[in-house]
Amino acid sequence: MLLQEVGTSDKAVEGYKDLVDDGILEALHKTGRNLRGIRVCHVSSSPYGGGIAEMLYAIVPLERNLGLDVSWMALRGDERIYRTGKLIHNGLQGAAVEIGEAEQRAYRDWNRLAVLELLPRKYDIVIIHTSNLLGLPCDCPDSNTRWIWRCHGETSHPDPSVWVFIKAITERYHGAVFTSRDFVPEDLKLPRVTSILPAIDPLSPKNRDLPIKQCREFAESFGIGQNLPIVLHTSRLDQWQDPDGMIRSYYIAKDSVPDLQLVVITSLSLDDPDTFATLRIVDEEASKDEDIHVFTNMDGFGDLEVNAFQRVCRVGLHRSLREGFGMPVTEALWKGKPVIGSRASGIKALLTGKLEYCLTDTAEEAGTKLAMLLTDDSRAGELGEFGRKSVQSGFLITRLLGEELAFFESVLELSKTPSPNQATTKDVK
């Protein structure tokens, strides 16, 4: 089996009633009635690690709660498919990469075998969240299935050779969703294309409220001075996260704040081979400075641990060169922490209004602004409070859920031809 079904816990949209307006929940229920019985499958490269999996752990059970018949399948690949998928991902984000004919053939073969596992389920909609499996529809016979490419990267200027390969594949899709309209390649021609901004689940283990005393004690148990300032980076590490710039920013800020600590928490996964190589760069710097602390999921660090450190840090740091998702930035803002970020498009969408102060062009500027916020509690508190309100008003999972369901309606063209699996209004109790 090349695909494995991922299990999730139950969730209900009513669980968010204290966080969002009643009108939002009513609209979700209304759309759910329109889509009741629709068979949907989300396909990702991994069941854990990274913002895509975190989003799906919330979206999948919530869509089920609203009456849709939803599955989540994750790839069970080997090093070859993950390596080729990463090359495609990097190429789509603008890196100059080469995918040879043999790799292209192997990629198509993997996708041809994987789609055979989906066909018997007769889904109405299949959403592909990973570059590893973008080729699934290519060898799928004509059917009622609607294919959606959910692109989570910054793909405004893809590598030309990679885009030629991928564009031919995407012509079999019925729609695509990007984080920003700016990320849509100019010559992508699909029946439906839209943009949906990222969001977090405020009730997940990573984002739910935790007692600050408990968080401080936890940090101290890992050798982090709870009374010393902490700058925190949380995300997968690869070439796009600018590890050199992150370290340089920290050292610049440390010149003004000598007791500053840098905590890096990252997730290592076989579906992203770059993470291991990039981690070695950060580990090498940590070996030179006892105030740099690096933790991974291999050390037992999961969602609760990230949550705790996001609550005890003073400022977050996210030096992405390309960013399509921005999940770690959103998480830190939800905890009332300002984040110094780059001007990568996915981050600019989050750091708006007063938070534009936190946008930086260089590692040197990031280090200077880190130092300013670390020595100005009032300014840091004001930006943190603004950030939490910004997330509550626009970046919670309920908003993303509503926009995704509306896109399903559009792709299915429900006003014209109801899906054969869709329940009619009179069937809904």
Write the SSE topology.
Layout lengths: L2 E3 L16 H13 L4 E6 L6 H15 L3 E7 L3 H14 L8 H18 L6 E4 L17 E5 L9 H11 L4 E4 L13 E4 L16 H10 L8 E5 L8 H14 L4 E6 L7 H13 L5 E5 L6 H10 L2 E4 L8 H8 L4 E4 L2 H4 L10 E2 L2 H12 L2 H18 L2 H16 L17
Parallel strand pairs: 2-3, 2-4, 4-5, 5-6, 6-7, 8-9, 8-11, 9-10, 11-12, 12-13
Antiparallel strand pairs: 1-3
Helix pairs in contact: 1-14, 3-4, 6-9, 7-12
Question: How is this structure best described in words?
Answer:
The chain is built from 14 helices and 13 strands. The protein is of the alpha/beta class and 429 residues long. The strands form two sheets. It has a seven-stranded mixed beta sheet with strand order 1-3-2-4-5-6-7, covered by helices on one side. Strands 10-9-8-11-12-13 form a six-stranded parallel beta sheet, with helices on both faces. Helix 2 links the parallel strand 2 and strand 3.
Q: Which short descriptors sum up this protein?
A:
429 residues, alpha/beta, six-stranded parallel β-sheet, 14 helices, 41% helix, disordered C terminus
Distance between the ends:
38 Å
H/E element string?
A: EHEHEHHEEHEEHEHEHEHEHEHEHHH
Major beta-sheet overview: 7 strands, mixed
Biggest sheet, strands in spatial order? 1-3-2-4-5-6-7
Percent helix: 40-55%
Number of beta strands:
13
Oligomeric category? single chain
Number of helices: 14
Q: Give me the Rg, rounded.
A: 22 Å
- Global geometry: globular
Structural class computed from helices and strand pairing? alpha/beta
Mean pLDDT: 89
> How large a portion of the residues is in β-strands, by DSSP E?
5-15%
The low-confidence parts are 415-429
